[in-house]
Amino acid sequence: MTFHIITFGCQMNVADSDWLARMLRDRGMRWAEPAQADIIVLNTCSVREKPELKVRSTLGRILQETGKNRSVLVAVAGCVAQQLGNTLFSFSPQVRLVAGTDAMGQIPDALELLLANPGRTLCLTSFSTRYDERPKPREAHCGPVAYVNIMQGCDNFCTYCIVPFTRGRQKSRSSAAILDECRLLLEQGAREICLLGQNVNAYGLDKTSDGTSFASLLRQVSALDPDMRLRYVTPHPKDMSHEDVALFAELPNLCPRLHLPMQAGADHVLRRMNRRYTAGDFLSLVQALKKARPDLALSTDLIVGFPGETEEEFLQTMDMVRKCGFMSSFSFCYSDRPGTRASGYADKIPAPVQLDRLQRLQALQEELSSAWLAERVGAATTVLIEGQSPRQDDTTDLCRWQGRDPYGALVHVDLAKDADHTGQFVDVTITHAFKHSLQGTAG
Ligand code: SAH
Ligand code: SF4
Ligand code: F3S
């Protein structure tokens, strides 16, 4: 049996697909290109753009690539599966499994059941009321950077966002299970752990939690290995406690980088987004963070053209971006998501206005990102090597490797050809800044 997994969406989906691949390998299946695969899993995202169309066109492409072979078993998993449920069976005759966000752990068994019963289909979209532990794959996680889920779902209901509908209510995973998984990953060679969730610093604040706070969890994970790197994503500004901020001063292995979604810079827009902080609150938080860790690098998510956003309000977002000096950002035009509160707001912004704002914002970010990278030239840093660079320089007898510095910036460095440097921490001096990455020399 062979399988292929196609993944859209956030880091949680990437981590889910990675888990699924290892589970399927445990059951004796091999990875294959779509045209040769017996099973194809599509792990989907509904957060932006036209997710249904994307799923429909991907299913169409699979049908073509597999020569319309109906014995190919296609499973649709993740957020679009949760949202559309059994209507997905009508998207393609090959779809026989629909598995929502809380059903990921059941996919391996479900696939085996369907393989044994060629006439059957299965739709698993109920939410569970607690964090379901998944079976542990035998195959070791490979790669120096490991992602560990600490929660599922989100209770915030930002008015533009579909995640609370597709991932359900917030459910914290037990701290014992998180720590066990981290220990195992470190034994297996992980050098960096990133804790994952839609609102990580609300960890422990739901009724399924074991009473451990996010700060306490972070301390415990950090203590597992002083030499590893620790990161987390995504925090919510309103839930960053004083203790969470202080940990940037307290924990040496907590990396000096934080992805802190701001979304907008005008109070009126933030209120209508239900973000529950003001621009002033956000700036105070940034100041407190920089006080705890002066070299902290910040990145963010931004939405332009939210319903009712005026030019003046957009300029306030630009101003905040400048004040916070983000090293990078993801920015998006607001788009309606079915069932969300903002989709019912009357004062939608025309697409050309949204695009114009997006371009101006992205031009500003390019400037800030270039300045941030340029300032790194000459600095001594440590790079955790993740693998060989896709582009090699054939004129040297060295090999070009790439990895990330503590700020999460991509760094290329030339090292000896004869060894595998993946997973090594290499001391580097930054020599050059490219548009989106850095070049360094070892030593
Ligand atoms: N839990 C995270 C990630 C949510 S989704 C958080 O709270 O930040 C990732 C990003 O997609 C969001 O931060 C937001 O900037 C963007 N996004 C979500 N819904 C959107 C929508 N309807 N239109 C445009 N961008 C959206
Ligand atoms: Fe969506 Fe807001 Fe939850 Fe993030 S915090 S997942 S933007 S509802
Ligand atoms: Fe997308 Fe679902 Fe993640 S909507 S961003 S895959 S939580």
UniProtKB/TrEMBL annotation:
Xref: InterPro entries: Elp3/MiaA/NifB-like_rSAM, Methylthiotransferase, Methylthiotransferase_CS, Methylthiotransferase_N, Methylthiotransferase_N_sf, MiaB_methiolase, rSAM, rSAM_horseshoe
Q: Does the keyword Cytoplasm apply?
A: yes
**Pfam families assigned to the protein according to its UniProt record, in alphabetical order:** Radical_SAM, UPF0004
The note on cofactor binding and number reads: Binds 2 [4Fe-4S] clusters. One cluster is coordinated with 3 cysteines and an exchangeable S-adenosyl-L-methionine.
- The Enzyme Commission number assigned here is 2.8.4.3
PROSITE patterns for this protein: MTTASE_N, MTTASE_RADICAL, RADICAL_SAM
Which annotated residues bind [4Fe-4S] cluster 2? C154, C158, C161
Q: Does the keyword GTP-binding apply?
A: no
Q: Name the chain's protein.
A: tRNA-2-methylthio-N(6)-dimethylallyladenosine synthase
Q: Which organism is it from?
A: Candidatus Desulfovibrio intestinipullorum
The organism that produces this protein has a lineage beginning with:
Bacteria, Pseudomonadati, Thermodesulfobacteriota, Desulfovibrionia, Desulfovibrionales
This protein's encoding gene: miaB
